[in-house]
Each structure stands twice: as structure tokens, then as C-alpha cells.
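input
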Amino acid sequence: MGRFKGIIPPLVTPLAGRDKLDRDGLERLIERVISGGVHGLFVLGTTGEAQRLSYGLRREMIRLACKLTAGRVPQNLV
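output
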């Protein structure tokens, strides 16, 4: 496995309710950071909210983030 390099920001998890992902908000966030030239995305990273999210919401966040990035970042780290 290669070394990580470049900018790999942790993403916040945009919520539309207590246990509901803001899918449009996540799409806007991902588009914004990709357009800024990041090299990867750190989903459910060090922002601290992941421990409070349900497993279902975490799975949804990961799946949607992978779908939205679809190979558009140099590091395949999503």
C-alpha cells in the first residue's frame, strides 16, 4: 500500500434530522471539497459525531460518499 499524501479532510456529517442524512447537503459538501483540489476524503473522520450516529446512518453516509466521489479524487481513500 502506498503512502498517503496531499490534502485529505475529514467531512462533517450533514444531518436533516435526528437520524436522517442530509443527502443534498452531503452532495454539496463533497462537490465543494473536490472542487478545492483535495486528494481524498476522510468520511466519518475526526469531527467527533460518528460515535453518536446509528450504524444505518453511518452505512448510508459511506455508501453515498463513495457514489458521489466515484473515482474523482486522486487517492482512492473514500
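quick obs: The helical segments are 23-35, 55-69.
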